[in-house]
C-alpha cells in the first residue's frame, strides 16, 4: 500500500519528503534481514517473507526514474545481499523479479550487477537460468547496437577477447585479472584462497 501510494503521486510533484519514510522502512527490513521488532525475534519464515517482499518493493519503486534517483548507493549495496541470501526461495524470488523488470527495460542498467553475484550460486538451476538469460540479453543488446553488455558477455561463444574471461567469471570458472603490462591472466578461485 505504501509503495503504490508513492507511485500514485503525479510526475511533477515533489516526492522526496513522502518517499523518505517508505525507503527507510524497506531498507531497514533488508538491512535487518526481515526483523521488525527490537525486543522480540520474529519467526525465521516471517523474516524471509518480509525480506523478499521489501527487496521486491524496492525494485518496483526503482522502476520509475524519480524513485531510482532517490535510491542511495548504500541502499543499492545492501540490496545486493538479497542475491546471496541464505534462503534459496528468497534468492530465487528476488532474481525472478529482477530479471522480469530488467527484461521489460523498467530498471536502469546498474541493476544488472546483481545478476553477476550469482556466479557462486549453490543452486545450479537458478545459476544456469540467470546465465542463459544474461546471454540472451547480451545478444539482444548486440542486435540493437547497444554496448551496455558488450564487454561482459560476448554474443559469440568462442571469443578469446577480454569479455570471454568475464563470461567465464559468470559461469564460475574464475576471473580475468589484468597485470600492469595490460596482459590478462586466468585466475582460479582455489588458488586465491591458497595464496592467503
Helix content: 55-70%
Q: What is the alpha-carbon Rg in Å?
A: 19 Å
Uncertain spans? 158-196
* Class based on secondary structure composition and strand pairing: mainly alpha
Shape: flat
Q: Give the termini distance in whole angstroms.
A: 49 Å
Please tally the β strands and state the result.
2
Strand order of the largest sheet: 1-2
Number of helical stretches of at least 4 residues: 10
Strand composition percent: under 5%
Order of helices and strands: HHHHHHHHHEEH
The major sheet is characterized as: 2 strands, antiparallel
What is the arithmetic mean of pLDDT? 80
TL;DR?
56% of the residues lie in helices and 4% in strands. The protein is built from ten helices and two strands.
What does this structure look like?
This protein has 196 residues and is mainly alpha-helical. It has ten helices and two strands. Strands 1-2 form a two-stranded antiparallel ribbon. Strand 1 and strand 2 (184-187) form a beta hairpin. Helix 6 (88-103) runs parallel beside helix 8. It is flat. It starts with a helix and ends with a helix.
Amino acid at each position: 500500500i505504501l509503495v503504490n501510494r508513492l507511485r500514485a503521486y503525479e510526475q511533477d510533484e515533489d516526492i522526496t519528503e513522502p518517499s523518505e519514510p517508505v525507503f527507510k522502512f524497506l531498507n531497514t527490513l533488508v538491512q535487518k534481514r526481515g526483523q521488525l521488532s527490537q525486543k522480540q525475534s520474529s519467526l525465521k519464515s516471517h523474516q524471509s517473507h518480509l525480506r523478499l517482499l521489501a527487496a521486491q518493493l524496492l525494485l518496483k519503486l526503482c522502476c520509475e526514474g524519480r524513485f531510482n534517483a532517490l535510491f542511495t548507493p548504500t541502499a543499492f549495496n545492501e540490496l545486493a545481499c538479497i542475491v546471496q541470501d541464505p534462503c534459496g526461495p528468497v534468492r530465487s524470488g528476488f532474481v525472478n523479479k529482477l530479471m522480469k523488470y530488467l527484461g521489460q527495460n523498467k530498471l536502469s542498467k546498474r541493476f544488472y550487477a546483481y545478476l553477476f553475484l550469482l556466479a557462486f550460486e549453490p543452486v545450479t538451476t537458478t545459476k544456469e537460468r540467470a546465465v542463459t538469460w544474461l546471454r540472451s540479453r547480451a545478444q539482444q543488446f548486440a542486435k540493437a547496437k547497444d554496448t551496455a553488455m558488450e564487454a561482459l558477455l560476448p554474443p559469440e561463444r568462442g571469443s578469446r577477447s577480454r569479455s570471454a574471461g568475464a563470461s567465464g567469471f559468470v559461469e564460475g570458472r574464475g576471473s580475468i585479472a589484468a597485470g600492469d603490462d595490460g596482459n590478462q591472466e586466468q585466475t582460479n578461485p582455489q588458488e586465491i584462497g591458497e595464496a592467503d
